[in-house]
Amino acid sequence: MSHSSTDGFASGTHDSQAWLTKRESEVADLIARGLTNEQIAEQLVVTAGTVANHVAHILDKLGLQSRVQIATAVVRHNAAGGADDVLALLQRLQLVQNGEVRDVLQHATDVLTTVFAAEKVDAFLYDTAQDLLVALGTSQTPLGVRQHELGLHLLPVLSGGRAAWVFREGQSWHDGQVDRDEIELEGVRRNLGVRSSLMVPLHIRGELRGVLQVSSIQAHYFSPAQLQLLQFVAYWVGLVAFDAYEHSAEGETA
Fold first, then answer.
1. What residues are paired with 211 via a beta bridge?
2. Which of 33, 44, 93 is nearest to 67 (CA)?
3. Phi, psi of 233, rounded to the nearest 5 degrees
């Protein structure tokens, strides 16, 4: 099992034939995970100005024009063929960005099930009134249906297993032996039979609002590169969900 470590955006060439330094590669990886310059600076223990300089160098060396293009380049590099599926997902999400947040999350979980070839994908959001993580989006798969039958789509923040831990700690999680994870709920380990999982924090409006989770009943099923891919997706799902929030708010005030 592991936290949010990835293989990284290895130094290499682009059309400009320029090489990224190790530090620039680290910054590019963190951009793909949706971190701001200030968050990157905190993680790398440097100043925000230093990070800004690194970003400028990356853009110049790779002949790119935005952070979005940097993130896309990282995903293509690290995820190989799976990147095209995810980028297609992001395009499809734009079609539902003016809908309800639930619609956005449900669409994302259904598509991600195919992208990751997983038995279940969940998008949990935090319900402040009940202090619960609520799966507003769950893949329409047998395991997803079973989860709802068992009531495992509602997770107490203080005792809701590994997903609740990811939410509380704000850290990603990758595990290929879920049955040995004492923090995970017994219902997840035994009744659902989950053996591999990827979980990443989900931010909306710049705030930690939930968890995006991918599950498989096969052990050691997911790779570190897929964890980074999910981090990238969570960043963009959060942005689209933010647009949905804005659209909903406009409707209420109209």
1. 124, 201
2. 33
3. -65, -45
Hey, what amino acid is at 19?
Answer: W
* Residue 137: both structure tokens together: 């989006």
Question: In this structure, which CATH number among 3.40.1190.20, 3.90.70.10, 3.30.450.40, 1.10.1760.20 belongs to the domain 80-253?
Answer: 3.30.450.40
- List the one residue out of 146, 155, 152, 104 whose CA is nearest residue 127: 155
**Distances 126 to 147, 210, 246 between C-alpha atoms, Å:** 18, 5, 18
Best CA proximity match to 29, nearest among 252, 228, 249: 228
pLDDT tens digit sequence for 9-67: 544 444 433 588 999 989 998 887 777 899 899 999 999 999 999 999 999 998 888 88
Please, what is the end-to-end C-alpha distance for the chain in angstroms? 49
Rounded Cα distance between 225 and 189, Å, is 24
Q: What is the pTM of this model?
A: 0.73
Domain at 22-78, CATH from 1.10.10.10, 3.40.50.150, 1.10.540.10, 1.10.510.10: 1.10.10.10
CB 17, CB 89: distance < 8 Å? no
